[in-house]
Amino acid sequence: HDGSYSMCALDTKAIPILVKNLDNAMDNTYTFSVEGPAKLPVSEFGLKKGAAVVLMVEVSPQNAGSSEIVLKATSEKGQLAANKKLTIDAEDCYSIITEIADEKVQLCGGDTGRIDARVTNSGSFRENISLITQGAEWAASDVDSISLGANRFSSRSIYLSPPANTKGEFSITYKAELSKQAILAQDSFVVDVEPSSVCYSSDLSAK
Question: Which residue positions in the chain have pLDDT lower than 50?
Answer without folding.
Answer: 203-207
